Amino acid sequence: MKKAPPSDRPPRRDAATPTSARRPPARRGAAAPTAVPPRTAAAPASVKLQRVLAQAGLGSRADMEQAIAAGRVTVNGDAAHIGQRVRAGDVVKFDGRLVRWQAQPTRLPRVLAYHKPTGEVVTLDDPDNRPTVFRQLPRLRSGKWMAVGRLDINTEGLLLFTDSGELANRLMHPRFGLEREYAVRVLGALSAEERQRLLEGVALEDGPAQFRSLEEGGGDGANRWYRVTIAEGRNREVRRMFEAVGHAVSRLIRVRYGAVALPRGLRRGAFVELEPRAVVELMQAAGVPLPLPPTPPRRRAGPPRGAGPRPSRPPAPERGARASGARAPQPTRRRNG
């Protein structure tokens, strides 16, 4: 009997029921729970310069610190320094161009979910002229797209982009521990001892690493699929961890980043923009304050324009009536023949 070839696709897993859908029914007569409004931050008196530049979409905080150290940023005409704070009214320029900034943003950042295929690199300019992920993204009027983490050239799956350097920096920071979930195809099945080592931690060149969870995903023959979650994003970390226990990774797909999952049906090389509700959830998970509502324009003192009685106008003359001061037409006299 001929064996079926090993599947090239990771096995599907039914979506779990959200935690919010598992609440017990409310008791009769119990008071309704009070909705907690989303956290917003009041506009501070002064903010760090690198944060202002990151919020403007010019790059991450680390990139902006390097730009400040290189003398590419000025404040009120003077060269800026690392750690400098700016206030409302300060004139900030980046590479000689004026930066329009606010102490506290008044709009949500934009976030894209991109399905990265293998063969693309996560960089703006590649010296080897390889295709980059940024060539598929829409253009921005100001700022630039920043990738949330990286995927190596042989890894595919979910890659997030945002126009907010502050949000990108928080989403990547290990302090917030946002989970990354991967579907991994390896050569050979893991033994119980190898599974335990991967969950407890293995030694890598840049320090120990461990999976938060490791589940079997099926597979036939020598190829086996696994679902793993990890709370950091070091270079080729998932591949190196499996290699540390003697298994080579033949395919690696990122299927989730935090609460954002790879949209089902999204083809490789395509993207979708997240809805505002999903962006808010992402900001709250990363500890980013929500933007303040825009300030309404000031009204002029006194009654609003158009209020009050209108100036009177003289009534229009009736049709056929004689205008005042006009000479009345004389009747035509008939001559006697």
UniProtKB/TrEMBL annotation:
Stored NCBIfam families: PRK10700.1, pseudouridine synthase
Compositionally biased residues, Basic and acidic residues: 1-15
Low complexity compositional bias, start-end: 16-45, 322-331
All copies of domain RNA-binding S4, residue ranges: 47-106
UniProt xrefs under PANTHER family: PSEUDOURIDINE SYNTHASE FAMILY PROTEIN-RELATED, RIBOSOMAL LARGE SUBUNIT PSEUDOURIDINE SYNTHASE B
GO molecular-function term, one example from the UniProt record: RNA binding
Catalytic EC class: isomerase
One biological process term in Gene Ontology: enzyme-directed rRNA pseudouridine synthesis
Family: Belongs to the pseudouridine synthase RsuA family.
Keywords in alphabetical order: Isomerase, RNA-binding
UniProt xrefs under InterPro entries: PsdUridine_s_RsuA/RluB/E/F_cat, PsdUridine_synth_cat_dom_sf, PsdUridine_synth_RsuA/RluA, PsdUridine_synth_RsuA/RluB/E/F, PsdUridine_synth_RsuA/RluB_CS, RsuA_PseudoU_synthase, S4_RNA-bd, S4_RNA-bd_sf
Gene3D superfamilies, per the entry: Alpha-L RNA-binding motif (3.30.70.1560), Pseudouridine synthase I, catalytic domain, N-terminal subdomain (3.30.70.580), RNA-binding S4 domain (3.10.290.10)
EC number(s) from the headed UniProt entry: 5.4.99.-
Location of the region described as Disordered in the Swiss-Prot/TrEMBL record: 1-45, 288-337
Protein name: Pseudouridine synthase
GO cellular component: cytosol
